[in-house]
Write a structure and sequence with these properties.
Number of strands of chain A: 6
Oligomer: heterodimer
InterPro entries (chain A): ABC_transp_permease
Order of helices and strands of chain A: HHEEHHHHEHEEHHHHEHHHHH
Strand order of the largest sheet of chain B: 2-1-3-4-5-11
CATH class of chain A: Mainly Alpha
Number of helices of chain B: 11
Organism (chain A): Devosia oryzisoli
Distance between the termini of chain A: 15 Å
Pfam family, one (chain A): BPD_transp_2
CATH architecture of the largest domain in chain B: 3-Layer(aba) Sandwich
Structural class of chain A: mainly alpha
Subcellular location (chain A): Cell membrane
CATH topology of chain A: ABC transporter involved in vitamin B12 uptake, BtuC
Keywords (chain A): Cell membrane, Membrane, Transmembrane, Transmembrane helix
Shape of chain A: globular
Helix content of chain B: 40-55%
Largest sheet of chain B: 6 strands, parallel
Strand order of the largest sheet of chain A: 1-2
Mean pLDDT of chain B: 90
Chain lengths: ~325, ~325
């Protein structure tokens, strides 16, 4: 039992995360120093958890979509829309809970729209979600009329920058979502259904899975997650920046899912490992910030690290240095846990 | 010679030559304005200030929004030429590809003034260009810091704009020029915040951790105000006082930074004026009055604003401009 647990922990994603954190520690010796300040934890590791939360939340939604052989390019734009809705409503005088719920509903609606295009109209996911990726930012700009809508609402600011039990609120929200979604897909049959649809939608339908409903569900979840991330990002800077909120984060979310070992071809997926992927990306970002590299190197360092991490996970690396020799020997293909 | 004295001289000369009549009176003239689009708050402010300036002078401004496309700008300029306007203002979206359409304007004897960006075309194809000097903006910010820290040791952290963009390169260069020779001021850390609030905040958080919880940082220099606003929040989250514990100096002069200055949370900003049209109209007025050829490159003023410059008033004046 213990050995199996240890075996589970020794997967390449967690090793990569530990590796990146160790590199950060070598570059910046007080990387792991955490202090207690103003009723919250304070330190670089906390920054990784806090700043990584939006992409982690996006990747929780994205992993289900990618497991169905789809992709959701619109999440960055949906973040901007949700932030714009929440900010505009509180500025217009609506109570904050109403603004938050409205923003979440708008995100859900965006997800349902994507799901409708993909599942009902059978448009390829990359094209279907590209529509909202482009239009969404325009919608957000329309809502904010091109301004950065700033607000002083305590609830929205709490969601973005508050803390719960010393942990940043964004981290707590990501953690709760992680647990809920993991339970949803692993303690019910939904996870298996998603994998079945991702491997072969026609076969899954013939086997009695309502694949259309399932697709709409995963895109709706992705939209909802994007809205949550959007509210957090807006609360963080006390303003909705339609031009920049969530810009390119869809790519970070897809990368996090891929680093987490989920195949873009659908099927096998893991929600916790996607979150680990998001943390790896953020650990690199934070590491670059505290290490003092010139900014010209940011993207090169990131790209180099990511290639390395993907290489470690590749079938080639598994052949050269088998991670689980007993399985490799008897030729059992790794399947979903 | 500063731009103000240049303009004053030009205006004075023009008045002297134009037999007592007001040389600046250009009311009734029709001017076409091809704007890039409204990609940033500053751009929107430039559009509204240009319209204001035209109205003040009684100029009939024909406005065309190119939505970031050069082909739309060329179409708009051809349209202005066909309508026979008296002058054309262009904020060019890219630097190349203007020779033909500028030649057409020249043949129609319509003076063209470039606003805030230059083009790669023969200089005789346009009357003048009005732009800010980004290196100077950095220099003014750096000079403010030099004047304000005296001989104390001062570790500065820098929030750069988007890597490789010309404002980031030039504003960095100007700041470094200003602090050169003042060995007590050093740039301890420099990272890109992509000109956005959220990245500015994130990068500043990292800097604070890396510099002994922020205790070692004396000042933050941000290449734009938005990053400074983000940095101010990061400083507050770390339990420090922005403006006091860590000085904040940035560039652009957007309304929100004036609020921060009024609250004592930011110290200074260098204005990138959205009023590019004012000097352009002045140059046109002199040109129409007696054919005075203006300088080929008119540099706008990079004015420094601090708490002494009525930040509340500046905020009120700017908030309606579309920033």
């Amino acid at each position: 039992m213990t050995r199996r647990m240890l075996g589970r922990l020794a997967n390449p994603q967690l090793l990569a995360l530990v590796g990146v954190l160790l590199i950060n520690w070598l570059l910046f010796p007080s990387f792991f120093r955490v202090t207690w300040q103003d009723g919250r934890l304070f330190g670089s590791v906390i920054d990784v958890l806090n700043r990584g939360a939006p992409v982690a939340i996006l990747s929780i939604g994205m992993v289900g979509v990618i497991a169905t052989k789809g992709v959701d390019l619109s999440v960055g734009a949906v973040m901007a829309v949700a932030g714009a809705v929440a900010a505009s409503l509180v500025v217009a005088g609506y109570p904050a809970p109403v603004a938050v719920i409205a923003a979440l509903l708008v995100g859900l609606l965006c997800g349902l729209w994507n799901g409708f295009l993909v599942a009902v109209l059978d448009i390829q996911p990359i094209v279907a979600t590209l529509v909202l990726m482009v239009a969404g930012r325009g919608i957000a700009q329309l809502i904010t009329q091109g301004f950065i809508v700033t607000f002083n609402d305590p609830l929205l600011i709490f969601i973005g920058t508050g803390s719960f039990l010393g942990l940043p609120m964004a981290t707590v929200i990501a953690l709760v979502l992680l647990v809920l979604v993991t339970l949803l897909v692993r303690k019910t049959a939904i996870g298996l259904f998603i994998e079945a649809v991702g491997v072969n939608r026609a076969a899954a339908s013939l086997a009695g899975i309502r694949s259309r409903m399932l697709l709409i569900l995963v895109y709706a979840l992705s939209g909802l997650c994007a809205a949550i991330a959007g509210i957090i990002v807006a609360g963080d800077i006390r303003g909705a920046d339609a031009n920049n909120a969530g810009l390119w984060l869809e790519l970070d979310a897809i990368l996090a899912v891929v680093i987490g070992g989920t195949s873009l071809l659908g099927g096998r997926f893991s929600v916790p490992l996607a979150v680990v992927g998001a943390l790896i990306i953020q650990a690199m970002n934070t590491g670059i910030l505290v290490s003092g590299f010139p900014p010209e190197f940011n993207l090169i360092v990131k790209a180099g690290m990511i290639i390395l991490i993907l290489l470690i996970q590749s079938p080639l690396a598994t052949r050269i240095a088998p991670r689980r020799p007993q399985r490799a020997r008897i030729g059992v293909q790794r399947t979903a846990k | 010679m500063s731009i103000i004295t240049k303009l004053a001289l030009a205006a004075g000369l023009a008045t002297a030559l134009s037999s007592g009549a007001l040389a600046q009176d250009i009311s009734g003239k029709v001017v076409g304005f091809s704007q890039i689009g409204s990609e940033s708050g500053w751009r929107a402010a430039e559009t509204s200030v240009t319209k204001q300036q035209a109205e003040e002078r009684g100029v009939d401004l024909k406005f065309a929004d190119a939505q970031q496309k050069q082909e739309n700008q060329i179409k708009a300029i051809r349209g202005f030429i066909a309508q026979g306007v008296d002058a054309i203002l262009v904020a060019p979206v890219v630097a190349t590809g203007w020779d033909d359409v500028l030649q057409e304007a020249k043949e129609a004897e319509i003076p063209v003034v470039l606003l805030d960006r230059g083009v790669e075309a023969p200089e005789d194809l346009y009357l003048t260009s009005v732009a800010s000097d980004q290196v100077k903006e950095g220099r003014v910010a750096g000079q403010w810091l030099v004047d304000n820290v005296g001989s104390e040791d001062c570790k500065v952290v820098e929030l750069q704009g988007t890597v490789g963009s010309s404002p980031a390169i030039n504003r960095k260069k100007g700041f470094e020029e200003a602090i050169a020779g003042h060995d007590n001021i050093t740039i301890a850390r420099s990272q890109t915040g992509d000109f956005t609030r959220s990245k500015g905040k994130e990068v500043m958080e990292g800097f604070i951790k890396a510099e002994n919880g922020g205790a070692d940082i004396c000042a933050v220099y941000a290449h734009n105000d938005d990053m400074a606003v983000g940095a101010i929040q990061a400083i507050k989250d770390a339990g420090l006082k922005p403006g006091t514990d860590i000085k904040v100096v940035s560039i652009d002069g957007v309304p929100d930074i004036f609020q921060a200055i009024a609250a004592g949370e930011a110290n200074a900003t260098v204005e990138l004026t959205p009023n590019m049209a004012g000097p352009a109209f002045d140059a046109l007025a002199a040109y129409w009055a007696d054919g005075t050829e203006p300088e080929k490159f008119i540099i706008t003023e990079s004015k420094l604003y601090t708490a002494a410059d009525d930040p509340e008033g500046e905020y009120e004046r700017r908030k309606g401009l579309g920033y």
